[in-house]
Amino acid sequence: MDFSAYLKDPQLSLAGKTALITGASSGIGLASACQLAEAGVHLKLVARRQERLLATQAFLSERFGVKVEILCADLTESGVIQKMDDANFFEADIVLNNAGLASGRDAVADSRAADWQRMLDLNINAAFEINRQVVPRMLAQGQGDLVCLGSIAGHISYEGGAIYCASKHALRAFCECLRRETAGQNLRVILISPGMVETEFTQVRLGSETEAAAVYADMTPLSPADIARQIVFALQQPRHLNWDELVITAQDQGGVKKVVRHSTP
């Protein structure tokens, strides 16, 4: 009896590939940049904070010997797509659409139009447009990996999250459509949908370090490195295998509203 078909396939090498990462100056974007660089992937990093980008570029290029290009840009600003195109940032083997935000947690009746617009501009408009730019290039080169950062909020809606949840539902639907459109063309569309991850995301949303800390009090949330590991692992799978979506939560989280907190003795 031949058991070879039942043994684990070797992981694909990512060395020498190039990855475009948005929102790369902190959190999941930064962790993914670090772990992909460790795997030998050259990087094109986009974020708003120039100082952090420069520090990341210096560290990763020296530590891992990969090429790191940076572009300081706000993805919601007019002309940013052209700016990325002019810098050849859409020429990549891997694209991680990571940039996103939640602004406030007010009920619809009490919410502000400005908060709505910020989320729609970044979570939907910018993400969709970047995908539209890179997909034809990946199809033309005969191969590509498109990873989008979703959320458990793309599955379960909750009070105070109408626009954020709607944006992540929209991203999930977009990825499902794109997956069907590109099936069989060696372009992998991968949606990563985390639950509670301790990043600056929550502080930005709530506008308070104290309130953000309370969200993760007495439980163990996911870390940016946890999510980056899943992204890298998905990319290392044999090319016939596509992770359509991975929903990943902390063991202490049983859903959007179900969080088990362990009191300190």
Question: Mean pLDDT, nearest integer?
Answer: 92
The end-to-end span amounts to: 56 Å
Q: Strand portion, in percent? A: 5-15%
Strand order of the largest sheet: 3-2-1-4-5-6-7
Low-confidence stretches: none
Number of H/I helices: 8
Radius of gyration equals: 19 Å
Report the helical percentage.
Answer: 40-55%
Number of strands: 7
Shape: globular
What does this structure look like?
The protein is of the alpha/beta class and 265 residues long. The protein is 42% helix and 14% strand. The protein is built from eight helices and seven strands. Strands 3-2-1-4-5-6-7 form a seven-stranded parallel sheet, with helices on both faces. β5 (144-149), α5 and β6 (187-194) form a beta-alpha-beta unit.
What does the secondary structure layout of this molecule look like, with pairings?
Layout: E1 18-22, H1 27-38, E2 42-47, H2 50-64, E3 68-72, H3 80-86, E4 94-97, H4 113-141, E5 144-149, H5 162-182, E6 187-194, H6 200-206, H7 209-215, H8 224-235, E7 245-248
Parallel strand pairs: 1-2, 1-4, 2-3, 4-5, 5-6, 6-7
Helix pairs in contact: 1-2, 1-8, 4-5, 6-7
